[in-house]
Amino acid sequence: MTKYSICLPALRRGAVSFGLGAGLLASAAAAEDLPVWHNYSYDGEIEVIKALMDRFEEAHPEVDLIRTQRSFDDLALTLRLAVSAGDGPVVTKVNQGAKDMGAMVAEDMLIPMDGYISEYGWDEQQSQSLMDRDRWSEDGQFGEGTTYGISSLAEVVGVYYNEAVLEEAGVALPLESFEDFLAALETLKGEGVTPMAMGMATGHLGLHLMAAVAQAHIDASHRAELDDLIYGRGGSWKTDANLKAAELMQTWSTEGYFFDGYQGIGGTDAVQLFVAGQAGFMTSGTWYFGDLQSNPDIHFMPMPAPEGVEQPMAVGGVDLAWAITSLAEDEATQDLAAEFINDMVSPAAAEVWAAGGYLPAAPLPEGSEVELSALLTEGIEAWTSLNAADAIGHYPDWSTPTMLTTIDDNMALLMAGRQSPEEYVDIIDADYQAYLAAK
Amino acid sequence: MKTSVLDGPPRRNLVFVLPGLILYCAFIFLPILSAVGLSFTSWNGLSAPRWVGLGNYIQLFGDARFFTALKNNAILMLFYCVLPLILGMGLASAVSAIRPRERLAVRTLLFMPYIMPSAVIGVVWQWLYNPAFGPINQGLKAIGLGVLAVPWLGDFNWALPAVGMVAVWYYFGFCMVIFLTGLQRLDPSIFEAARIDGAGPAYVFRRITFPLLLPEVRIVLLLTIIASIKSFDLIFTMTRGGPANATLVPNIYMYDLGFQLSRYGYGATVAIIGAILVFAVNYAVHRFLKPRDGA
Amino acid sequence: MTDASRIAARALGFRALVWGFTLMTIVPFGLLLLTSVKSKQDLFEGAFVLPDRIHWENYVTAWVDGHFSVYFWNSVLVVVPVVGVSVLLGLLTGFAFAFLSFPFKKTIFVVLTLGMMVPTEAFIIPLYYEMRWLGLLNTYAALILPQIAMSVPFATLFMASAMQQLPRDILEAALLDGAPRGLILRRVILPLMRPAISSLALFLFIWTWNEFLIPLVLVNDDSLRTMPLGMLFFQGRYTVNIPVLTAGAVLVILPIIVVYLIFQRKFIEGLTAGASK
Question: Residue A339: which domain range?
Answer without folding.
Answer: 31-150+320-360
